[in-house]
User: Fold this.
Amino acid sequence: MDSMLPMTGTTELLELLSPFVPDDFINRTWPQTWTGGRRRQHSAAQLFRVHLLSLLTPVHSLNLVVRLLPEQSGWRRFARLRNQDQRPDVRMLHEFRARTGVAGLRAVNAHLLEPLVEHYAWRERSVGLIDATDLPAACGGFKKKYRVLLGAWGGAGRADAQNGAEPLVCRLQEAHLAAVAA
Assistant:
């Protein structure tokens, strides 16, 4: 059983995965830019690693990750934060996410997959992975049809039930399919 990964959130797992985070690529792709007076205390790779902590630990809220960073030395070591006082706040993480965007995360993914594709693409038997963004969204789940809200004057009112309305994702996917078919 030596081939199993350590448990989620453990220091052993973070130490095992740390060398695979492409810090140089991330820092080159999103260099520190002018902020209008504020000085950036953290590199793009450090902010990316803090985001990874929300995936690699049982804490899935960035607010809680930021709050627990001073107590978790293994997490700070993974994120390459020097000390417990200099940690990013939620605003910094939000700004990094806005600056990076979905295309940026796909660029990191492509950078990580590049050596695998180069090594295995020429072989007779290859594996193809489905990109989850191309799959139809589950549009009907957890719909709150008749949620009662208290109005500003204390009276009960109804929330917009959205009866018969389709979410934007479904409409865009149908439009995409129609455009591809044409």
Q: What stands out?
A: The chain has two domains: 11-120, 132-181. The CA atoms of residues 18 and 107 lie 18 Å apart. The first helix runs from residue 11 to 17.
